[in-house]
Design goal:
139 residues
Length: 139
């Protein structure tokens, strides 16, 4: 078992079966191209691999803002639905915390859909706090 950053197209594509469970609108045919485009803007893809297969995936970026200073923002965090309850999500989350600390981040944050109750329980168990409401509108 290992956690690493997806750097090759092969590694990025290997994350697709897991991340598509969280983002079912994604298409495998242009997944690598989309991730590569986002990487130009600081996006990174980390994955926990067991027996040469990604079982947990996190997409994240490091940024700065006036409200928080330097922070790590988690765009995507998902464990394969057939591999849950093996602490893979916890291990990947802890890896993200260490990555943020090692890159001098003062905060780690994410948004989670209001309907994702199991995810909310997980985040609260990881000692995260609910600190704001996220508002959006489709344009």
């Amino acid at each position: 078992m290992s956690i690493q950053l997806a750097e090759s197209d092969f590694q990025i594509l290997g994350c697709f079966p897991v991340i598509s469970q969280l983002r079912p609108h994604l298409e495998q045919d242009n997944f690598v191209e989309q991730v590569r485009y986002q990487m130009k803007e600081g996006y990174q893809l980390a994955f926990l691999e067991v027996e040469q297969q990604a079982v947990a995936v996190a997409g994240f970026r490091i940024s700065n803002c006036l409200a928080l200073g330097k922070f790590l923002y988690i765009d995507d965090l998902v464990v394969d639905e057939l591999k849950r309850s093996h602490s893979y999500g916890k291990q990947l989350f802890q890896w993200l915390i260490e990555y943020a600390r090692n890159h001098d981040c003062k905060h780690l944050s994410l948004d989670s859909g209001v309907q994702r109750f199991a995810a909310h329980r997980f985040y609260l168990m990881q000692r995260m706090s609910i600190t704001s409401h996220h508002f959006s509108m489709e344009l």
